[in-house]
Write a structure and sequence with these properties.
- The structure is a homodimer of 437-residue chains.
- Helices cover 44% and strands 15% of the residues of chain A.
- Chain A is an alpha/beta fold.
- Chain A folds into three domains: 188 residues, 3-Layer(aba) Sandwich (Rossmann fold), CATH 3.40.50; 143 residues, Rossmann fold (3-Layer(aba) Sandwich), CATH 3.40.50.1980; 33 residues, Single alpha-helices involved in coiled-coils or other helix-helix interfaces (Up-down Bundle).
- The longest helix of chain A is centred in the N-terminal third of the chain and has 19 residues.
- The first copy, chain A, is globular and about 80 Å long.
- Chains A and B meet through helix 5, strand 3, helix 10, strand 13 and helix 15 of A and helix 5, strand 3, helix 10, strand 13 and helix 15 of B.
- Strand 13 of chain A pairs parallel with strand 14 of chain B.
- Chains A, B: Its cofactor is Zn(2+).
- Chains A, B: GO terms for molecular function: histidinol dehydrogenase activity; NAD binding; zinc ion binding.
- Chains A, B: Belongs to the histidinol dehydrogenase family.
C-alpha cells in the first residue's frame, strides 16, 4: 500500500511489512455509529410501564405518524388473510419452500433430554422445555423482510413455543403485506402495528392489550437494540445484531463476476456492512474489483453498496491460501464463503464463523433464504464466542438431581466438608441433619 | 393475613381473597439494590484500555489496598502449588470428588456435530467448536468459593477451551488458598490477583501483561456485573447472576428441621436471598417456621440468614399440592426442591426451574457441591427463558451449507424471487449469475 494514498477498497498484502498493523486497523474499525439513545429509551420504557396502551398510542402517533386506538393496535385476522390471499403464487411458493426447508433443518436442532443413573445410584439429568412466549420484533420500512419473519418464527415454533407474538411498525399506516403473509405461513396470528422501544417495552412489561412475553427476539434500529439491552433480565433477548459481513476466500479459478456479486450482496444491506475478499491471486483480485465497480452501477441500492465497499470493503492478498484460515479466524466472520476446489480442507483448519458456505456453487444468499439454516448470525467478531439463532434460543434446561438415603450417605460428607471450608453452616446442616450427623 | 400486620416471614394462603395480589407483590418485589455504578465502571474500563497495567496497579492499590507490580499481577506457580500442598487431605478429597463428578456429568452435555445430505442433495450441518479463551472471575473476601471455581472452570475445560485465565481480588494481599487449590485441580494456572471492573476490563481488552479473552464468566459484585454488561459484545459473557433463591414444595410428612435447614441454606448466602416454602399443611408450616427460628440462632451467618428470611422469605399455604406447579412456574425458581412422595409426578407438571431436587433425600446443597450438575443457575425468574451454566456456554456453532450446480439450479429460483420481493438486487444476482439467468 502506497503511503498516504488510501486505496478503495482497502488492499492489504500479507507480504507487506505493514500488514499486521493494517489488519489490526481493519479488525478494530468501528462500523457502527453508537447513537446515544439510552436516556430516550429509558424514558419511553418508563412511559409504557406507567401508561400502558395510552403511551403506545401517543408514541406511535409521534414516531410513526399513525393514529391508533387500543382496538386496532393488533392487526386483524382479516388483514392478515387478505395479505396472504393477495400474494402472487410465485412469491407464496418461494416463501413456503423457505419455510419448509428452515423447519426441517431446525427440527434436527431440538436438544434431547438426558436422564441417567450413575455408578453410585445418583440420578442426574437435563430436561429441556420451550420458553412459554416469545415476542418477535420485525423492523418496518425498507428492512421489513418476510425472510426475517421466517428465520425468527420457525425456530420458536419448532421449539414448541406456545405463544409467538409479533410486532412491526406501520409507518404512516403502511405494513409490508409479505411480512403478514410470512407470519401466516409460520402460524403467527398475534401481530401488533408497533415499533421502536415502545414495542419492546410492551412485550417486556405488558399493557392492557398486550400480554408480556418471556423472551424478545429480532433485529431493529438503535432504539430497539437499546431497549432490548435495558429490558434484558426482565425478559430474555437474542443477540444484538450489528451490520452484516461476508468474508470470501477464493482462489484465482473463480469467475470474478460471481465473487463480486457475493461481496455486493452484503454491501447492499447497509453502508456499514463489510465485504472482504481473501485471495492468493493478484490478477483475480483486480478482476473482482473491476467487476464490483461494473455491477455497482446496476444496483437499485448501489449507493448503499458503494459506500459500504468504499468505507469498509477490503481485499487481502495472501502468498498462499494456507494463510487464510488464521486470518479468517481473527476476522471471525458472520458469513464465510470458501470458493476453492477443496473447501472442506480449508474449513477443517478454521474455527470461528457464524455460517460457512462451501464451494463455488454455494453463494451466501442461499443461506439468507432457502438453504434451511438460519440467517440470524453473530456479527462484529462475536462468532468467536456465540452462535447463530437456533432452536436452542427458544428452550431452556432444568437440571435434575435425585438421591436416595444411600447416595446421600455416600456423597454427604464431601458436601459437608466443602460447606465447612466455605463457612456456610446451614449448607452443611441441611446434609448433616439428614444423616443424623 | 391480618390487615396492617406484616407477618415475618410473609405467610400467604391461596384460599385468601387477597392471595393473587399478595403473590404478585412477592413476585414483583425487588430484592437487589440497583447501585448506579455505570459511570464509575465506564471510567475504570476507559482507564484500563488507555493505561493498561499501570491502571490495574493504580486501581488495585485504591480499591484492594494492595501494591502490585507488573511482575506480580499474576500469581506464581509456586504460590499455587504451595496452596495445594497445604490443603488438608479431607478438603482435597472433597474438592476432587466434586471436580470428578462435575466433569463426568458435564461431559454428557457436549453437543454433537451434525452433517447430512437432504432429499435434493443439499449438504447441511452444524459444527461445534470451543471458545478459544475464557476469563473466569472469582470474587474475593467471604464469597471467594472454591466450589465456584470448579463450577465455572470444569465446563470450560470439558468444552475444550484452550486457555482458561482466572482473576481473583486479593484484598490487602490475601488470597483464599482453596481458590488456588481448586484452580490447580481444574488445571488452571493463569491466575491474576485483580478484582472489580478493572479485572473485567483487562480480560476484555488486554493489557501488556494480560492477553484478552473471548468470553468472561463468573459472579461478582455490582461493579463486576456492570463491567460485564458494558464489555458484552466485545467479548461474550455468561448470565448476570442475582441473589440466590430456593423454593421448597413439601407435604406434611417431612421433618420440619430438614426443610428449615434447606430454606436457611439459601438465606445464609445473602440478605437479598429468597427462600419460599409451599405446603398444604398449616401445622407443618408452623413447625418449619419454628425450626427456622431455632436454627437461626446457631448459624455463624445467622444475621444474614435472618434478614433474608424476614425480608424475603415466604410460606405459601395451598389447599392441595395440585396447586403447587402453577405457582412454582410463576416463581420460576433457581432451585426447586420437591420433598414429597412422588416428586416425578409433580416435576412432570411444571416447566420453569433452573434445577430440580427430587425427593426428601436430595437437599439442594448436594447440587451446590458434589451432585455433578452446575450450581450457576438462572435467578430472578429468568428460568422462564434461560438455563444454568453448561458446556454449551463454552462452545459455539458454525452452520454449514454446500450446494452443487444441480442443487443451486433447484433452489436458486426461490432465492431469486425472495431477493426480488425484498428489493435486494445483488442478492438475486449472486444466484442468477451462477445459473446464467
Amino acid at each position: 500500500m502506497t503511503e498516504g494514498v488510501r486505496r478503495v477498497p482497502s488492499r492489504l498484502n500479507t507480504d507487506d511489512s505493514g500488514f499486521e498493523a493494517e489488519f489490526r486497523a481493519l479488525l478494530g474499525a468501528k462500523r457502527e455509529q453508537a447513537d446515544d439513545v439510552d436516556a430516550a429509551v429509558r424514558h419511553i420504557i418508563a412511559r409504557v410501564r406507567e401508561e400502558g396502551d395510552a403511551a403506545l398510542i401517543d408514541l406511535t402517533r409521534q414516531f410513526d405518524g399513525l393514529d391508533l386506538t387500543p382496538e386496532v393496535l393488533r392487526v386483524g385476522q382479516d388483514e392478515i388473510d387478505a395479505a396472504h390471499a393477495a400474494t402472487p403464487e410465485e412469491t407464496l411458493a418461494a416463501l413456503t419452500t423457505a419455510h419448509d426447508r428452515i423447519s426441517s433443518h431446525h427440527a434436527r436442532q431440538m436438544p434431547k433430554d438426558d436422564r441417567y443413573v450413575d455408578a453410585i445410584g445418583v440420578e442426574l439429568g437435563s430436561r429441556w422445555t420451550a420458553v412459554d412466549s416469545v415476542g418477535l420484533y420485525v423492523p418496518g420500512g425498507q428492512a421489513s423482510y418476510p425472510s426475517s419473519v421466517l428465520m425468527n418464527a420457525v425456530p420458536a415454533k419448532v421449539a414448541g413455543v406456545e405463544r409467538i407474538a409479533m410486532t412491526v411498525p406501520a409507518m404512516r399506516g403502511v405494513l409490508n403485506p409479505l411480512v403478514l403473509t410470512a407470519a401466516k405461513i409460520c402460524g403467527v396470528s398475534e401481530i401488533y402495528r408497533l415499533g421502536g422501544a415502545q414495542a419492546v417495552a410492551a412485550f417486556a412489561y405488558g399493557t392492557e392489550t398486550i400480554a408480556p412475553v418471556a423472551k424478545i427476539v429480532g433485529p431493529g434500529n438503535a432504539f430497539v437494540a437499546a431497549a432490548k439491552r435495558q429490558v434484558f433480565g426482565t425478559v430474555g433477548i437474542d443477540m444484538i445484531a450489528g451490520p452484516s459481513e461476508i468474508l470470501v476466500i477464493a482462489d484465482g479459478r473463480n469467475d470474478p463476476d460471481w465473487i463480486a456479486a457475493d461481496l455486493l450482496s452484503q454491501a447492499e444491506h447497509d453502508s456499514a456492512a463489510q465485504s472482504i475478499l481473501i485471495t492468493d491471486d493478484a490478477g483475480f483480485a483486480d478482476a473482482v474489483e473491476a467487476a464490483v465497480e461494473r455491477q455497482l452501477k446496476t444496483l437499485s441500492r448501489g449507493a448503499t453498496a458503494a459506500a459500504s465497499w468504499r468505507d469498509h470493503g477490503a481485499i487481502i492478498l495472501v502468498g498462499s491460501l494456507d494463510e487464510a484460515p488464521a486470518l479468517s479466524d481473527r476476522i471471525a466472520p458472520e458469513h464465510l464463503e470458501l470458493a476453492v476446489d477443496d473447501p472442506e480442507a480449508l474449513f477443517a483448519r478454521l474455527r470461528h464463523a457464524g455460517a460457512v458456505f462451501l464451494g463455488r456453487h454455494t453463494p451466501e444468499v442461499i443461506g439468507d433464504y432457502v438453504g434451511g439454516s438460519n440467517h440470524v448470525l453473530p456479527t462484529a467478531r462475536s462468532a468467536r464466542f456465540s452462535s447463530g439463532l437456533s432452536v436452542l434460543d427458544f428452550v431452556k434446561r432444568t437440571s435434575i438431581l435425585k438421591l436416595g438415603p444411600d447416595q446421600l450417605r455416600e456423597l454427604g460428607p464431601a458436601a459437608i466438608e466443602l460447606a465447612r471450608v466455605e463457612g456456610l453452616d446451614a449448607h452443611g446442616r441441611s446434609v448433616a441433619i439428614r444423616l443424623n450427623l
